[in-house]
TrEMBL record, chains A, B:
HAMAP family: Asn_tRNA_synth. Residues 138-456 form the Aminoacyl-transfer RNA synthetases class-II family profile domain. Belongs to the class-II aminoacyl-tRNA synthetase family. This is Asparagine--tRNA ligase. GO terms for cellular component: cytoplasm. CDD domains: AsxRS_core, EcAsnRS_like_N. The gene is asnS. Keywords: Aminoacyl-tRNA synthetase, ATP-binding, Cytoplasm, Ligase, Nucleotide-binding, Protein biosynthesis. It comes from Pseudidiomarina planktonica. Homodimer. The lineage of its organism: Bacteria, Pseudomonadati, Pseudomonadota, Gammaproteobacteria, Alteromonadales.
Length: 466, 466
């Protein structure tokens, strides 16, 4: 007798006739008049539960089996058999049922087998993975993360963990959280009345990182091909379905690469990840297609099959201005595109993912490489049908004189960037990279509407439970 | 003509006679009297640099090639040839040298080709990956992280990202950093004079996590086999070579597992990771063996080959008391073992990794499963020769009544653990897990003495540079 996962049974990996024990949680129980109970057991190893057919001859049939409710934990021993019923190919003919744990009061069990709202599930984030939808999300999330690590590893990229706590607001990508151990009831002050951060844990003011990019550039400028995969933070009061205060980012950075190189990298990375999900998580994807978003599989399939269309920002503005469609926000060269514009371009105008390139320098960060026209920088956004921007990246300014002029122009203090400037003083190389918001990717792949439902324990303004 | 990595050339993957371009940084340049320059170029793809043989016929030979110094960035085009010299099998017969970037002032270049102290390299964390030692560490670090993800993925584990920001000090594993957006010059107070954290970003006091364990238990109690791999934090004023304020942890958590199951998991995980390093990073490991720690490869090989020895804490105490060796710290049942004791057991008494089990409950956390003797808990530490404790884990108390009694005994407020208690109220299952400090693992594998040298940008008291 050996233990088996539900997926091993349902996939046919275990020979019919084998005696095994499956351990998991009861999804449903149904009793026939003939004195047989059908118990569906899930263990998280795949979308479906396995059916155990429990005859009344089992020792504890009356005392326990017929009292099992959703959420009870059990070990069921029995023989793998071909299933006579519809749906699944295999089932378990039970000879023994062991109950590990009961549900305290089935009537008040928070994960009772009725339909719950996503808000309700969020309030029970410690139990929601017991539901079909959150279980499926988390398996797809895992599949994507594994695929991304594998993609980069196979191509010779090194994973680099950039720091979470940082003493510089160097990228200026957003509002930051302060990290401190100062006694809040007794903040030390300097003679001039300012806070004496020299007495704080790190000897200076410290924050949570908004991006690992500047740090990982130093790794690209020696190890050539690197990527981060780690948490980043925004202390912005954005209570929307697309924002999290804490989210995971994937940031590849590539020495000797230009904008087109990383546009190609972004395209092949997304295709690789989507193929992995469709292959490895077909069961969960079928569920999302059926219950969450009927277009979700087609959309992924199209991204896999289509060539991404490259387009200049300047051309995109012209297209949007002349398309005859009335947008909520007007379009003008020099302003950032809104989600409605991005989606029009990807969904209506082209009908495929777009890589939009060469944005006006005034709406982009200081580190982006200036183009020869003096007006634009070598930045790109990847716009996907159905969601809009999913990746943002750029070539980095590797010319010290140009970088310095830009820092001056933007009134950024050079001292603060001294180590970053060192990378340009000593054997500088052209390099480029991009950032992918991992939870945005998971919403795109699953069709889930709210980003808080694709991360285990979401953090948002006024919300840091569990 | 195509681009190639240094590793592709040196491994013989590219046919002799092929014309390629290698891009990287100059490690050394040597000029022969015959008017030929030998330039060693590294690009991070492997330990060794490739030698480019540059004849004086190259266009910019006098104007640029003979001026190249350590750290300059170049693209060298040429033909792959078998190397006549010692050492490497292949070299590049250059026909063209393009210089991307010079070193501003070679005399003051911080990574000049002399020997630097580890402290010095730490002060130049943005440049130190250009050195042999840090490059090797970071490749091994990447190899270990990829191997760990692969190990768990192959066995059906799901990666779970537990929250970084947390509002509960539930585990009590150590001092915590506060995360806040309150205006430090103007802290809001309540009528009773206390700080009004309701006005803070998350509406309550928030911290950086010390462990994802409690959170990930909720995932094990539905998805069965899960693991975390993410950053954790300790605000402890420990300025030692073994402590970091920010470090990465790997925490598998397994439903239906007992202490012996996760002891077995820890053993197979370490063996898998060490095999991966010895196979995939033989070049870097040869360097560590030669320059950092002459026993390092043997030690890994032994861990791979030996069965881990299981031993009870109680037996270990008796062995230590009767071994005749004089320890700095006395040994008595009921006290925690010190590093000297752990190393004696693993290195002298057994000569193999030890899994020490069943510690006194009073020196362990509230969540560890109580044994029937009423005195010990089902906890384990993995002690490795040469380093001592490398993994700590336990079975978790899954019985609500026992858990509650322990919370009372330790005067921990039940309300704070209500969601954790829910896991025991609804279909509780035996489960167990452990934590591996990822940087401890990297120091063990590389033989590096200071943990700050195995993480890209170390954070420690008074130190959060870059």
């Amino acid at each position: 007798m050996s233990f088996a996962s539900v997926v091993d049974v349902l996939s046919g990996e275990i020979a019919v006739g084998s005696e095994i024990t499956v351990r998991g949680w009861v999804r449903t129980r149904r009793d026939s008049k003939a004195g047989i109970s059908f118990i569906n057991i899930h263990d998280g190893s795949c979308f479906d539960a396995v059916q155990a057919v429990v005859p009344s001859e089992v020792d504890n049939y009356q005392s326990e089996v017929v009292k099992l409710t959703t959420g009870c934990s059990v070990a069921v021993t029995g023989t793998v058999a071909e299933s006579a019923g519809q749906g699944q190919a295999f089932e378990l003919q039970a000879t023994k049922v062991h109950v590990y744990g009961w549900v305290e009061d089935p009537d008040t069990y928070p994960m009772s087998p009725k339909r719950h709202s996503m808000e309700y599930l969020r309030e029970h984030a410690h139990l929601r993975t017991r539901t079909n939808v959150t279980g499926a999300v988390m398996r797809v999330r895992n599949c994507l993360s594994q695929a991304l690590h594998r993609f980069f590893h196979e191509q010779g990229y090194l994973w680099v963990s950039t720091p979470i706590i940082t003493a510089s607001d160097a990228e200026g990508a957003g509002e930051m959280f302060r990290v401190s151990t100062l006694d809040m009831m007794n903040i030390p002050k300097k003679d001039n009345g300012q806070i004496d951060y020299a007495q704080d844990f790190f000897g200076k003011e410290a924050f949570l990182t908004v991006s690992g990019q500047l740090n990982v550039e130093s790794y690209a400028c020696s190890l050539s091909k690197v990527y981060t995969f780690g948490p980043t933070f925004r202390a912005e009061n954005s209570n929307t379905s697309r924002h999290l205060s804490e989210f995971w980012m994937v940031e590849p950075e590539v020495a000797f690469a230009d904008l087109n190189d990383i546009a190609g990298l972004a395209e092949s990375m997304l295709k690789y990840a989507f193929k992995a999900v469709l292959t490895e998580r077909a069961d969960d994807m079928a569920f999302f297609q059926q219950r969450i978003d009927s277009g979700v599989i087609d959309r992924l399939q199209q991204v896999i099959e289509q060539d991404f269309v490259h387009m200049d920002y300047t051309d995109a503005v012209e297209i949007l201005q002349n398309c005859g469609k009335k947008f909520e926000y007007p379009v003008a060269w020099g302003t950032d595109l809104q989600s409605e514009h991005e989606r029009y371009l990807a969904e209506v105008h082209v009908g495929a993912p777009i890589i939009l390139k060469n944005y006006p320098k005034d709406i982009k960060a200081f580190y982006m490489r200036q183009n020869d026209d003096g007006k634009t920088v070598a930045a790109m956004d990847v716009l996907a049908p159905g969601i809009g921007e999913i990746i943002g990246g750029s070539a980095r300014e590797e010319r010290l004189d140009v970088l310095d002029a830009r820092l001056d122009e933007m009134q950024l203090p050079k001292e603060q960037y001294s180590w970053y400037r060192d990378l340009r003083r000593y054997g500088t190389v052209p390099h480029a990279g991009f950032g992918l918001g991992f939870e945005r990717l998971v919403t795109y792949v699953t069709g889930m509407q709210n980003i808080r439902d694709v991360i285990p324990f979401p953090r948002a303004p006024k919300s840091a439970d569990f």
